[in-house]
Amino acid sequence: MNPIIRGRSLVVTGAIALLPAFAAADAPITFSSNRGAGVVNLQSDGTARIDSTFTFEVGAFSKLPDGSAFVPTPSNVGEWGERWNALAATGYNEAPNNFFTGSATLDTNVEPFSAADVPYIWGFDSREGESEWILIRRDGAEAWSWPDAGGGGITPSRTFFTVSDTLGGLAAVVGEFNGAGFLMKTASVSLPAGGVNYSQWAAANFNAEDLANPEISGETADPDLDGFTNFYEFATGTLPQRAASSPVIAQALTGAGGMQLSISENPDALVTWELEVSSDLEEWDSLDPAVEGTSDGTTRTFEDPTEIGALPRRFFRISVKES
């Protein structure tokens, strides 16, 4: 949200200058890592590089029900998603510069973005199943802290959360920082088995303020304006606030002349899928027998055996519902 400034003109009466009046402004934040051809950021096997499949978020963890701080550790990674509140997200830029950079504006110091709450940068390729994660914080005299969102009525200075080998106090909760031959190195994380419903997914993908606003976090909302509702982003495993992260849909003819459709899938989403057909885009029917598709863990594929040339018109729709 951009600041609103009132009274830009300077009014002078006699020898007295009336200073401009300013409304409270949001606090700008930049979160980033060192960049350059010589920067090496590795995945846990020590060979593969962090790549464009990774997302980096700046945010904080909600408190525990008793009001005490939630402290993320390698032993409680299964709880991170439900307590995480992302302020902003950005992608990773591969070679030649090997870095991430993103920006955000903080417009409230309500928990978990108060001065007492700890900022973190969380990098990950997935939040389900076998994943690669790194979580970074900065402690000590130069510890990261959330800026004053009010700014005392004047636009606050920009706050920088920077991952750099020249800065002290940086540490990785999971993964490694500033090791031999690398700046960042992710850790392999195996999350507990079990499905995720929409509410759990939303808690992991929206901050507290957005969760309270159904126009942003509701099932039918589309906050990144990519044409896919939050529910479809949940079912397909994409990020609801990044337009560049949208479901991949493909179609092809089968060897028998039928139609094959495929769509990216969140394997942990507690949903049911079905292929529906129509001749007029008004009345839709399930196939008989119903086609729920097959999954390889990342993509769900449907096949309609009806030969395309056998009917004058045939439209397809992939239906998904929470189970």
Helical/strand content category: mainly beta
- Pick out the low-confidence regions: 1-24
Overall mean pLDDT score?
85
Question: Hey, roughly how much beta strand do the residues contain?
Answer: 25-35%
Number of helices: 5
* CA gyration radius, whole angstroms: 24 Å
Q: Specify the overall morphology.
A: elongated
> What is the number of beta strands?
21
Order of helices and strands: EEEEEHEEEEEEEEEHHHHEEEEEEE
Give the tally of structural domains. Answer: 3
Query: Major β-sheet, in short?
Result: 9 strands, mixed
Helix proportion of residues, in percent? Answer: under 10%
Q: Kindly report how far apart the N and C termini lie.
A: 37 Å
Task: Please explain how this structure is put together.
The protein is mainly β. Helix content is 8%, strand content 35%. It has helices spanning 80-83, 198-205, 208-211, 214-217, 230-236; strands at residues 11-13, 16-18, 27-33, 41-42, 55-61, 84-93, 99-106, 120-124, 130-138, 159-163, 170-174, 176-179, 182-185, 187-190, 249-253, 259-264, 271-278, 285-286, 294-295, 299-304, 315-322. Strands 3, 5, 6, 7, 8, 9, 10, 11 and 14 form a nine-stranded mixed β-sheet that branches. The chain has a four-stranded antiparallel β-sheet with strand order 15-16-20-19, with no helix packed on it. The longest helix has 8 residues, at 198-205. The model is unreliable at 1-24 (pLDDT under 50).
